[in-house]
Structure prediction request, 325 residues.
Amino acid sequence: MQTRQLGRTDLHITPIGFGAWAIGGEWRFGWGPQDDAESVAAIRQAVSRGMNWIDTAPAYGLGHSEDVVARALADIPRAERPYVFTKCSLVWGEDRIVTHNLSSASLRREVEDSLRRLQVEAIDLYQIHWPRWQAASEPSPGSVEEAWHTLAELKQQGKLRHIGVSNFTVEDLKTAEAIAPVASLQPPYSMLRRAIEAEVLPYCLQTNIGVLVYSPMQSGLLTGAMTRERIEGLAASDWRRHNKEFQEPQLTANLALVAVLRGIGARHGRSPGEVAIAWTLRQPVVTAAIVGGRSASQVDGVVGAADVRLSTEELAEIETALPRG
Prediction:
């Protein structure tokens, strides 16, 4: 794959990176049961197919995703290893309840824990997972300002090579930028979730902040493999069972959109999911897309998105097919 420069950093990354959310296994926001051997195979396949970065987070499986990433990369020569990106701010205790914490002391512990789990001396890109946590019933410790000062200090110490953010608004970005440069933003973006087009993407373009979009296939809904029967059979611990896009009345319209993507993909010899990913990459400001994979075959089904170039007519066809409202 060709590479693109991530914002103002010296990182040149492939348009598609491996997303390690689902391989974390079962937790409150998990995707149901997952086999670690299949996860390791998926990561190694992603690397062999040319992806040169992996995005994970401590919260994914409460440390498990980072452990699996380390296991998958252990036998790969250091010079050939992909960049590893991870995050901070979501923490948990013995009760396994996830809470939000941006205090300096908590972040410093998180960095040390991630370095240990990932078995690395420095983290290539370290991101604040959330500026605030909607699941919190009361204000979280710390603040964006305190957190960003802390990450800037840890970067100077060499423990973090680059620092970025996730799920930030433009105002959050401005707050952080006043303290130290923001390497990148990781926002949700897909055909069914386009809120960042109004303000966030234009601001990132103006300020040269790299953009790593997540859930470009709307958490698997736009892959072409998601049927009504498969949705009904999702594990009870799979968070998608409670997501409105996987339920009526949205589901019927979304599956109709997938049928259109299937037709467009056939012209390119690609899957509906690859068309959905390519649609996000059409934006010049989008550096790359995070694409999850739970098996080697799933990885093989998405890598072709980097080569898809949608025509003006195909983009208009998609726009017409998008569910209204």
